[in-house]
Amino acid sequence: MALPTLSAIDYIVLVILLLSSVVIGGIFGFGKSKTVSAQEYLLAGGGMHVFPTALSIMVSFISAISVLGTPNEVYMSGTMFWYQAAAWSIAPVVVAFIFMPKFREMKFTSIYEYLEKRFDRSVRICVSVTFSIYMFFYMALALYAPSLALSQ
């Protein structure tokens, strides 16, 4: 049995994708020669438009787990998956129009900053550590799942 390999078009698409990412990073990173503060650097001075910001956030949540797992989830649970898809479609709208205006009004940069102001520093640290542990295991799984699929 012949092993599947990437064709020339696959390599071309991969190179174009990587180069476009480098060019976009270069434009935003080196395009402005003035010295910027950490606040301006991390939040783009509040000047990023909605579409690139939303696209960046959306893409950061899509991983090989989603690509490999969604067809299996639909196969296993049938149309019940659409309830989850509907929730994932409605939740960002609720966050964007209800929570984000309040966060911008209070000038918070993260949920952790809000938790510290609302409760205290120990709550912020506890939630930060919990999220870090969660992400540690999630990233391990996100790297393992495609490698397992590719090894088959």
UniProtKB/TrEMBL annotation:
Membrane-crossing residue ranges in chain numbering: 12-30, 42-69, 81-101, 122-145
Biological processes annotated in GO: sodium ion transport
Cellular component terms per the entry's GO annotation: plasma membrane
Organism lineage: Eukaryota, Metazoa, Spiralia, Gnathifera, Rotifera
Recorded GO MF terms: symporter activity
Annotated organism of origin: Rotaria sordida
Name used for this protein in its record: Sodium-dependent multivitamin transporter
Domain of life: Eukaryota
Membrane topology value: Multi-pass membrane protein
Keyword terms, alphabetized: Cell membrane, Ion transport, Membrane, Sodium, Sodium transport, Transmembrane, Transmembrane helix, Transport
Cellular localisation: Cell membrane
Stated family: Belongs to the sodium:solute symporter (SSF) (TC 2.A.21) family.
